[in-house]
Design goal:
Elements (H helix, E strand, L loop, with lengths): L20 E8 L2 H13 L2 E13 L5 H25 L5 E8 L2 H11 L4 E4 L4 H10 L3 E3 L10 E4 L6 H12 L6 E7 L13 H22 L10 E7 L2 H11 L4 E6 L4 H7 L2 H8 L3 E6 L2 H6 L1
Parallel strand pairs: 1-2, 1-4, 2-3, 4-5, 6-7, 6-9, 7-8, 9-10
Antiparallel strand pairs: 5-10
Length: about 300
């Protein structure tokens, strides 16, 4: 998360997109995970004519006999998942199934683009999910826990270009029946230890207080427009490293969903700078929604 102040909120298009989800890609991987992913997809606020696409990927580097068995199992999983969804979706919504052979990340990204997915739902965290998030440039929901309507979601906000895509996607993800939201921001005062002459305790307290109030004012400005005006939310601005603040806040607030943005870095930038979002996604016990900073641009294409 950003260490030095907040950008000018006027740089962003601050009006949230309130249209419901029209296209959702559900990635099935393993029996238990497939059930969770399908049940979560059925609870999403979908458009009356929404299209849900079920995808099961079979690894290509397997013996022919093993691959045939996996294909049979995949077909059975897709059929069962399709029947479950059809019983629970709005009358005008449709379900289709696809089985692909190849690298999971490549197939997921290609299918998400082909169906113009508004959201990708999957149950596997770890490195593969990280690759998908960096490549797909669309919101990704990783389902980790028992499925129920979210009651205590948390939005982890950074004061940079990742904030507005996350806040703009929230109305589409939560819909009109949105529970109270916890908005969490972590700020770091990384230059304290190198300031010369050493500031007094009073000066440090004043500096930290300034950082806190600046973040509070910026977040309040963001969530007092459009859809957000009618929503209940609480603000939690804490000093510390983002990953630690997010994990401790999720535990203390008993959150059942962590939603956060990401820059979607790849290559050398990812190797050097890492990703708080991917670290949280890997270690969280609850569901995690990751919205890339470039998700809105990808959706327009």
């Amino acid at each position: 998360m950003r260490r030095f102040g907040a950008p000018d909120a006027r740089r962003f298009d601050m009006e949230p997109i309130e249209s419901p989800l029209r296209s959702v890609l559900v990635v099935l991987d393993g029996a238990d995970g497939a059930v969770r992913a399908v049940e979560r997809a059925a609870l999403l606020p979908l458009a009356p004519d929404a299209r849900l696409t079920l995808l099961h990927v079979i690894p290509s580097l397997r013996p022919a006999r093993t691959r045939s068995r996996l294909q049979r199992e995949a077909r059975a999983t897709l059929v069962a998942a399709g029947r479950t969804l059809e019983r629970r979706l709005p009358p005008g919504a449709s379900v289709s199934s696809t089985m692909a052979v190849g690298l999971a990340c490549t197939q997921i990204v290609d299918q998400a683009r082909a169906v113009a997915a508004d959201l990708v739902v999957m149950n596997r965290a770890g490195s593969m999910a990280g690759r998908v998030i960096r490549a797909v440039r669309r919101p990704v929901l990783v389902v980790r826990s028992a499925v129920h309507a979210y009651r205590r979601p948390m939005l982890a906000l950074d004061l940079d270009e990742t904030a507005l895509p996350l806040l703009s996607f929230a109305p589409r993800f939560f819909g009109s029946l949105c529970p109270p939201l916890a908005l969490v921001h972590a700020y770091e005062t990384a230059l304290e230890s190198v300031l010369y002459p050493t500031p007094s305790a009073e000066d440090l307290a004043s500096y930290r207080d300034h950082q806190h109030h600046r973040a509070a004012a910026w977040i309040t400005k963001l969530v007092t427009t459009g859809w957000w005006r009618a929503r209940a939310w609480t603000q939690h601005i804490l000093r510390g490293h983002p990953r630690g603040v997010i994990e401790s806040s999720a535990a203390s607030l008993a959150c059942d969903l962590i939603a956060l943005g990401t820059h979607g870095r790849s290559g050398l930038a990812h190797a050097c700078l890492g990703s708080v979002a991917l670290d949280v996604m890997r270690d969280a016990c609850c569901d995690v929604l990751v919205v890339p900073a470039n998700a809105a641009a990808a959706a327009r294409r």
